[in-house]
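Renewal narrative, Specific Aim 1. Our central claim is that a sequence can be written position by position from structural information alone. The example that follows is taken directly from our test logs and has not been curated for this report. It begins with the structure tokens describing the chain, in the order in which they were read.
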């Protein structure tokens, strides 16, 4: 069973040739940036291709020169429409996502490993555009034919110990999230500090407690206020588990920004 593209012709070109050319243009037009260590994760924004492409191109260009592990690429995207009380991460019911360029298989053994490690995974239809819009970038830049696409709701259990048991099987982590509007700079600072607590409300931002109410929850465990915040917090946690000690801003336009997390 293949999930057919639903946003082709609206969020990006439906014609394969034009789509590939546009993705290549976003990457080629981005300034070349090198990081002085092994890349663990990138954080890129979402939207339609004309909206996020010029910013995300900086992160995807980095993948062309950075030495990457050959293991599985993991995509994290916000599950904005999921209820906040869902503690599981979501994955589409299909065996693969189709794009105008080709199809990309969902790595079901990795889903099984998550389940066995105690990370709850709910197979549910993906009606949102975020993952679909980024898959052509993965296909063009990395040439991957399979990946692990996960949607993260605001209520996902980011502290589940099972993540630590499976992160060694993950290769590059591509986290798709926009920064909280009106607090972009504080969020940028938190990502560069690799401070995932900022996004869950577990600890307030320096010099201000207001972000606890913006991102945090009074529940029994840290919970992000938004799905985008949950994606960033989980990306930071997984990158640190892979040895990341540094975060670097690559490009930014308002709430859309691209980062590299590396060791």
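The sequence written for that structure reads:
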């Amino acid at each position: 069973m293949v999930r057919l593209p639903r946003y082709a012709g609206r969020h990006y070109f439906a014609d394969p040739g034009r789509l590939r050319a546009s993705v290549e243009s976003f990457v080629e037009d981005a300034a070349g940036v090198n990081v002085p260590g092994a890349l663990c994760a990138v954080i890129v924004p979402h939207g339609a291709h004309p909206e996020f492409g010029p910013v995300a191109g900086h992160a995807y260009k980095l993948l062309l020169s950075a030495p990457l592990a050959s293991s599985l690429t993991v995509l994290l995207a916000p599950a904005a429409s999921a209820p906040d009380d869902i503690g599981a991460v979501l994955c589409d019911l299909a065996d693969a996502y189709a794009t105008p360029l080709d199809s990309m298989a969902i790595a079901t053994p990795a889903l099984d490993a998550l389940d066995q490690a105690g990370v709850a995974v709910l197979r549910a239809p993906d009606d949102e555009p975020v993952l679909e819009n980024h898959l052509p970038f993965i296909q063009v830049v990395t040439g991957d034919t399979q990946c692990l696409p996960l949607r993260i709701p605001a209520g996902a259990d980011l502290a589940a110990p099972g993540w630590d048991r499976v992160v060694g099987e993950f290769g590059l982590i591509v986290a798709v999230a926009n920064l909280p509007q009106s607090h972009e700079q504080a969020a940028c600072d938190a990502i560069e500090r690799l401070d995932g607590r900022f996004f869950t409300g577990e600890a307030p931002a320096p010099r201000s407690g207001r972000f606890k109410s913006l991102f945090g929850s009074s529940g029994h465990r840290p919970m992000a206020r938004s799905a985008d915040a949950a994606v960033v917090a989980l990306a930071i946690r997984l990158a640190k588990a892979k040895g990341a000690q540094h975060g670097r801003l690559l490009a930014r336009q308002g709430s859309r920004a691209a980062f590299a997390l590396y060791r």
